[in-house]
């Protein structure tokens, strides 16, 4: 029986052609250290076939032209994230032996494993994960940084920006307080020195004796008989009268 092969033959699907890369996406690739027109052209073409001329920033940041090598994986794990093999294994849900195999080229590094570490390094959770910030979190409603020790303490970005000015004012008032303390200490020391000087040299007794002498002198002056002296005009008048005689 003759069959029509034209009816049973399936036409292969047409391969989607990538459209030209937009200038902004090209610039983004260059800013990430990639050359979309040369060394990374094949990877960029694959992305263009799926996304068109405008490539998403998140896929540009993944550096599609670079492979997930053992050296890049180890650098990301050890120096960027500062994780041990055991810690990385817990996060990636694999065994430490698998991590060691990836880093020693005993087996190929899955791109998904490397990409998971890279995305972790750029996440705000990782950047806030420090022993000194243990338990702190950002309130999604208010945007305040909440302290685990004082639940009602939530520091806003405006308050954080104002901290340098607040510290400067604190230092100014602290310096002013130190200056006043020094002046007060000097005044107290001078007062103490004078009191000791008066007590040791008998100055107080001398002042009391002088006070008594002055009081007696003033008393005598107040009770003395006051003699009236002729004025200058009276004396001249008397001399003229004598001359006329």
UniProtKB/TrEMBL annotation:
Residues 1-22 are annotated as: Disordered. It comes from the Bacteria. Residues 163-197 form a coiled coil. InterPro entries: Lambda_DNA-bd_dom_sf. Gene3D superfamilies: lambda repressor-like DNA-binding domains. Keywords: Coiled coil. GO terms for molecular function: DNA binding. This is Uncharacterized protein.
């Amino acid at each position: 029986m003759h069959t029509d092969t034209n009816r049973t033959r399936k036409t292969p699907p047409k391969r989607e052609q990538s459209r030209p890369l937009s200038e902004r996406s090209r610039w983004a690739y260059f800013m990430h250290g990639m050359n979309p027109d040369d060394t990374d052209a094949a990877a960029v073409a694959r992305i263009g076939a799926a996304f068109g001329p405008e490539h998403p920033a998140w896929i540009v940041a993944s550096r599609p032209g670079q492979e997930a090598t053992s050296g890049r994986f180890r650098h990301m794990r050890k120096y960027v994230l500062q994780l041990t093999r055991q810690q990385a294994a817990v996060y990636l849900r694999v065994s430490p032996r698998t991590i060691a195999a990836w880093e020693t080229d005993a087996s190929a590094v899955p791109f998904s494993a490397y990409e998971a570490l890279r995305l972790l390094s750029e996440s705000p959770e990782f950047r806030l994960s420090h022993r000194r910030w243990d338990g702190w979190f950002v309130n999604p409603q208010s945007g305040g940084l909440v302290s685990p020790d004082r639940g009602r303490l939530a520091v806003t970005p405006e308050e954080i920006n104002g901290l340098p000015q607040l510290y400067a004012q604190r230092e100014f008032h602290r310096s002013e307080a130190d200056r006043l303390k020094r002046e007060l200490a000097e005044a107290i020391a001078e007062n103490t020195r004078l009191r000791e000087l008066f007590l040791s040299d008998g100055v107080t007794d001398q002042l009391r004796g002088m006070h008594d002498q002055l009081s007696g002198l003033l008393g005598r002056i107040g009770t003395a008989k006051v003699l009236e002296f002729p004025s200058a005009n009276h004396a001249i008048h008397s001399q003229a009268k004598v001359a006329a005689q």
